[in-house]
Amino acid sequence: MIVENITTMSGFLLRGFSDNCELQILHALLFLVAYLFGSAGNFIIITITTLDPQLQYPMYYFLKHLSILDLSSLSVTVPQYVDSSLSGGGYISYGQCMLQIFFFTAFAWGELAILTVMSYDRYIAVCLPLHYEIIMCPRKCRWAVTAVWLGSSIPGTLYIATIFSVRFCRAKIIHQFFCDVPQLLKLSCSNDYLVIMGVADFLSVIGFACFVGIVISYVHIFSTVLRMPSAESRSKVFSTCLLHLFVVSLFLSTGIFAYLNPTTDFPTALEFLFSVFYTVLPPTLNPVIYSLRNDAIKSVVRKLLLSGKFSS
């Protein structure tokens, strides 16, 4: 009955990971915990990097905007899924679906762009420390962040513009926990989806170029760190950089697989798992990787918890 009704409606039905009511509630609780954990971590970073005078440096300026993007990305998909799972619904209007696609795509690509900028910032700081203040001056940092935010809207606009030209003639059931472009393609009744695949191919090339830029930056960082006399400093830089590369690689590889892999009528458990890897995991782990392993941020957090305020 639901399938028949959703076929005639303008919106879509999000089926999530399971039709079992108990499993839906379990998944909703797990997603809620991840959302609260990720939101708290990102909110703490945004707060302390904005208010504390010790953290007014380019690295923390970029980190603040990464946390804003992460918090926004989580908020676009997870709360809606938790609400629909706990209420037993799943219907999402056409307009809501398009907005979800636009904002999720924009925030995801903004995150990749800011991570690329952050890797370049670390490269300058480690490999060219004498030129750091000139190269990473406040004006250039502001321009870089402005470019990230403006550029992040381009992928979302491209996807929305192409999706508007697609006609949906199959049952509007999306086997995913949010409106994901690959799952929308299989509902198309024409070859219009080829245009969307062209956009996905184009963006994948850009994503791969960003990843190559990040890898090149860290190759130079690793080569410089290897010449450091302190084993403790080498270990700390390596552990943080390798975690960064791992999360970026996971985010890009699973996202590219989802967007370039031909969709099936019934997604496998691996496809569902990959969707979590590029939507929920990176924004949740980034605060841990970039903050809880940073001595300056840990010091500020301890000071905040003990005194209840920031010292001037």
UniProtKB/TrEMBL annotation:
<feature type="domain" description="G-protein coupled receptors family 1 profile">
    <location>
        <begin position="41"/>
        <end position="290"/>
    </location>
</feature>
<feature type="transmembrane region" description="Helical">
    <location>
        <begin position="25"/>
        <end position="49"/>
    </location>
</feature>
<feature type="transmembrane region" description="Helical">
    <location>
        <begin position="101"/>
        <end position="120"/>
    </location>
</feature>
<feature type="transmembrane region" description="Helical">
    <location>
        <begin position="272"/>
        <end position="292"/>
    </location>
</feature>
<protein>
    <recommendedName>
        <fullName>Olfactory receptor</fullName>
    </recommendedName>
</protein>
<keyword id="KW-0552">Olfaction</keyword>
<keyword id="KW-0472">Membrane</keyword>
<keyword id="KW-0297">G-protein coupled receptor</keyword>
<keyword id="KW-0807">Transducer</keyword>
<dbReference type="InterPro" id="IPR000276">
    <property type="entry name" value="GPCR_Rhodpsn"/>
</dbReference>
<dbReference type="InterPro" id="IPR017452">
    <property type="entry name" value="GPCR_Rhodpsn_7TM"/>
</dbReference>
<dbReference type="InterPro" id="IPR000725">
    <property type="entry name" value="Olfact_rcpt"/>
</dbReference>
<dbReference type="GO" id="GO:0005886">
    <property type="term" value="C:plasma membrane"/>
</dbReference>
<keyword id="KW-1133">Transmembrane helix</keyword>
<keyword id="KW-0812">Transmembrane</keyword>
<feature type="transmembrane region" description="Helical">
    <location>
        <begin position="237"/>
        <end position="260"/>
    </location>
</feature>
<keyword id="KW-0716">Sensory transduction</keyword>
<dbReference type="GO" id="GO:0004984">
    <property type="term" value="F:olfactory receptor activity"/>
</dbReference>
<comment type="similarity">
    <text>Belongs to the G-protein coupled receptor 1 family.</text>
</comment>
<dbReference type="InterPro" id="IPR050516">
    <property type="entry name" value="Olfactory_GPCR"/>
</dbReference>
<feature type="transmembrane region" description="Helical">
    <location>
        <begin position="141"/>
        <end position="161"/>
    </location>
</feature>
<dbReference type="GO" id="GO:0004930">
    <property type="term" value="F:G protein-coupled receptor activity"/>
</dbReference>
<keyword id="KW-1003">Cell membrane</keyword>
<feature type="transmembrane region" description="Helical">
    <location>
        <begin position="193"/>
        <end position="216"/>
    </location>
</feature>
<dbReference type="Pfam" id="PF13853">
    <property type="entry name" value="7tm_4"/>
</dbReference>
<comment type="function">
    <text>Odorant receptor.</text>
</comment>
<keyword id="KW-0675">Receptor</keyword>
